[in-house]
Design a protein that fits this description.
Strand order of the largest sheet: 8-7-6-11-10-9
Strand content: 15-25%
Helix content: 40-55%
Number of strands: 23
Structural class: alpha+beta
């Protein structure tokens, strides 16, 4: 009898230990998933803020407006429109613009109450040049709404003149995510907390209290309080602790990186052990009944031993099945009720199951997923197959346990979306790979915003055509490709004849419409692989690459002239006529450098204007417009009058010409990279010389001059990467243009000051 009691107690102790292990695994899984989701959400918002503040166009316009006293209404309207577009795309509550002192200049979105503390944070962001996180807090009366946000400084070059504060409504995602609970549990909960003075402040609403978010707190010194233990530095599983009601709980704590927050997931011990306590009660009744049978049938001890052995085996099976069912139940709860799309795949990629969030994201029903035997390749964008497949192979080989990538997916209707997917390999009790589980976050809006910002940086706002910067890049690529393939490139410059008269007669709005329609006519005359760019005003440029014969450009020029022979109908029904004077230069016949080719096309265009306009002309001058051995011609006009500086300028011109010659001779990439390194070393030495003069003679514009130096040196690494990518002509032209501009507008001004101070 005593042995049986001891065996029963041992059996129930094992069962209790198993249930404890399952409960702890569940709170770890729920806490880890939610902490990861919150971290990803914060990281995505930080990326959104930096996308806005790092946008050079927006920062430049905002800083100029601020430095102008925030009085220019046109620039203010431009800034407000840009912020409103960003707000519409990213769904923040409001965006606030501050100057360097922390004063609010404007806000877009919900009405924002000027908060002195946030203004101080904005000033600190400007002073430090660092991103700042604004923690959860209550807005001032009468709204008392919970809000949070992100502050990023605005910079132009190395200086900061203001900051943007993006206000987030935590009730839209953060608080619902924390408050979501497994549907089958009565006491499971997640609590987001932070330390505030000597208290624990609960940031979300607890399931058994009516206090609003940020409305309930307990002393940090509360004995055995799980969240207080976590805030004092204990992370991971916390044993022997209580919740805010003083009840024993199983809990798990995880810090949220970049914030003072700690996320604690918990479940009552009483709920976790409920099943074993019920089974123990039933087992007590069973034990009494069995004892009676043992007394009645004492003589049949052999059958009794067999019955006890079978009962023990049955109990072990019941225990194992109960643990397995409970574990599966917990997993099902987390899998089904999370707002994050999740999917389980077999080791060969087929879908085992998906949750409702996944179905909503991709447009399939669960029956379709099952009946169509979908796998991950069928919902992955074709060009994004390889990275994920390679990482899965590494995971199955044991090289990595999980990974996270951004990739494109295909919805059921064929639409493309971007997702950030976190993939983990799940193994069985023996450590054998069992299946793969993935969680996907939709980042389509962020990707579209990045694409829009990049497009705006390199395209003309009025016509949508590539701008001057993108034209240079495309021309450099076309010339480099033609050089490798022994082909030709045609560069066409086109100027609209009679455009000024249309603008003066009908107004600027009509002029803008003419430019838009002119852009469409140019595009209709070229191939899809060709480039049409707006060079400025009513001037356009066209790049025709990969030509077998230079005369192929003639057909395109004729199409352009014929296209502009037709009148243009304005929006009010009136008609006007503009022509097109076209100049054509050919690579390499008219030059192997971009500026030579562009000068040739420009001269040919003016030749067309002299011949009556609305016609085209090929450049008829000498090849390269001069000696290409002296591509960078350093003549008397470039002397600044300070001997040491002039000598260094001559040396830089020599190194640029030598690099040009090496590119013409197709020297090895190693040799060209070495020449670029020598050019950069000489440039740094030149900058050091100028800095020494400016410091010695107290040059008043030293800071701006040094800023130009820093900007070029920051570009140096990008130059080396562009040469490796086959864009060496663009690099060479960029270096030459910068040096010419720096000498003409900065060094001559510096030299004049030095000479005035008595330097010979």
């Amino acid at each position: 009898m005593i042995v049986a009691l001891l065996m029963g107690d041992h059996l129930f102790s094992n069962l209790r230990a198993g249930l404890k292990n399952v409960a702890q695994q569940n709170v770890v899984a729920i806490g880890s998933i939610k902490a990861s989701q919150i971290g990803d959400w914060l990281h995505e918002h930080e990326s959104d803020v930096k996308t806005l503040s790092d946008n050079s166009f927006f920062s430049r316009e905002a800083i100029r407006w601020i430095r102008g006293g925030a009085k220019d209404p046109v620039r203010r309207r431009l800034i407000v429109d840009r912020l409103q577009s960003f707000l519409n795309a990213h769904h923040f509550r409001a965006i606030v613009l501050y100057d360097s002192t922390g004063r609010v200049l404007l806000n877009v979105g919900d009405l924002f109450a000027d908060d002195k503390e946030i203004g101080i944070e904005a000033r600190r962001a400007v002073e430090s040049g660092q991103f700042r996180f604004v923690d959860l807090h209550r807005d001032r009366p009468p709204s008392n709404a919970v809000e949070m946000g992100f502050i990023s400084p605005l910079h132009e070059g190395l200086s900061y003149a203001g900051a943007v504060y993006l206000v987030e409504d935590p009730a839209s995602y953060l608080l619902p995510l924390v408050d979501s609970r497994p549907g089958g549990s009565e006491t499971a909960d997640t609590q987001l907390v932070r330390a505030e003075g000597n208290d624990v402040l609960y940031l979300n609403q607890l399931r058994d209290r009516d206090d609003p978010p940020l409305g309930y707190r307990l002393p940090l010194s509360t004995p055995g309080l799980a969240v207080a233990i976590a805030l004092r530095g204990k992370q991971g599983l916390i044993e022997g602790a209580n919740d805010h009601r003083g009840r024993p709980v199983f809990s798990y704590a995880g810090e949220i990186a970049g914030t003072p927050w700690v996320l604690v997931s918990k479940i009552d011990e009483a709920e976790a052990y409920r099943m074993v306590d019920q089974v123990r009660w039933l087992a007590g009744l069973l034990f009494l009944f069995t004892s009676g049978l043992i007394a009645a049938w004492f003589r049949q001890w052999r059958r009794r031993d067999l019955a006890e052995a079978e009962a023990a085996i049955l109990k072990e099976r019941v225990r194992a099945d109960a643990l397995k069912m409970e574990g599966e139940k917990r997993f099902r709860t987390a899998f089904e009720h999370t707002a994050l799309p999740m999917v389980r795949n077999s080791l060969t990629g087929e879908f085992i199951e998906v949750n409702d969030a996944w179905c909503n994201m991709f447009g399939y029903s669960r029956d379709e997923v099952s009946s169509k035997h979908l796998d991950w390749q069928q919902v992955t964008y074709p060009d994004d197959m390889e990275p994920g497949a390679t990482l899965v192979k590494q995971m199955l080989a044991g090289e990595i346990s999980d990974f996270k990538i951004e990739k494109r997916y295909l919805q059921k209707d064929g639409k493309v979306l971007w997702g950030s997917v976190q993939v983990k390999l799940v193994r069985d009790e023996q450590g054998v790979p069992e299946f793969v589980i993935s969680a996907i976050q939709d980042i389509t809006e962020r990707k579209l915003t990045e694409k829009t910002i990049n497009f705006m940086a390199y395209h003309d706002k009025l016509t949508g055509l590539p701008n001057r910067a993108l034209l240079f890049d495309r021309l450099a690529q076309a010339m480099s490709q033609a050089k490798r393939d022994a082909k030709y490139v045609a560069l066409l410059f086109a100027d609209l004849d009679g455009f000024k008269a249309v603008n003066d007669l009908y107004g600027h709005e009509a002029g803008d419409n003419v430019l838009k329609m002119a852009a469409q006519r140019f595009l209709a005359c070229v191939r899809a692989v060709d480039t049409v760019a707006r060079f400025g005003g009513d001037e356009f440029a066209i790049i025709l690459g990969n030509l077998d014969d230079p005369l192929q450009a003639k057909g395109v020029a004729e199409k352009i002239v014929q296209a502009f022979a037709q009148s243009i109908t304005l929006s009010d029904g009136r008609e006007c006529t503009v022509g097109a004077s076209v100049g054509i230069s050919i690579y390499p016949d008219h030059g192997s450098a971009m500026d030579n080719l562009m000068t040739a096309a420009d001269q040919a265009m003016y030749e067309s204007k002299r011949h009556g306009k609305n016609t085209y002309t090929f450049y008829r001058g000498k090849s390269s417009l001069g000696s290409e051995s002296q591509w960078f011609l350093f003549d008397e006009s470039m002397l600044v009058g300070v001997g040491e500086i002039d000598e260094q300028h001559r040396n830089l011109a020599y190194l640029v010409n030598r690099l040009n010659e090496a590119l013409k001779r197709d020297e090895s990439m190693e040799s060209i990279q070495q020449m670029l390194d020598e050019l950069l070393v000489a440039t740094r030495h030149h900058f050091d010389t100028e800095n020494r003069y400016m410091l010695t003679y107290n040059y008043p514009e030293q800071r701006d001059h040094e800023l130009e130096h820093a900007q070029l040196l920051n570009e140096a690494q990008r130059f080396k990467e562009q040469i490796s990518e086959g864009r060496e002509l663009l690099v060479l032209q960029s270096v030459k243009d910068w040096l010419l501009s720096h000498i003409a507008f900065s060094d001559k001004k510096l030299a004049a000051y030095l000479q005035h101070q008595g330097l010979k």
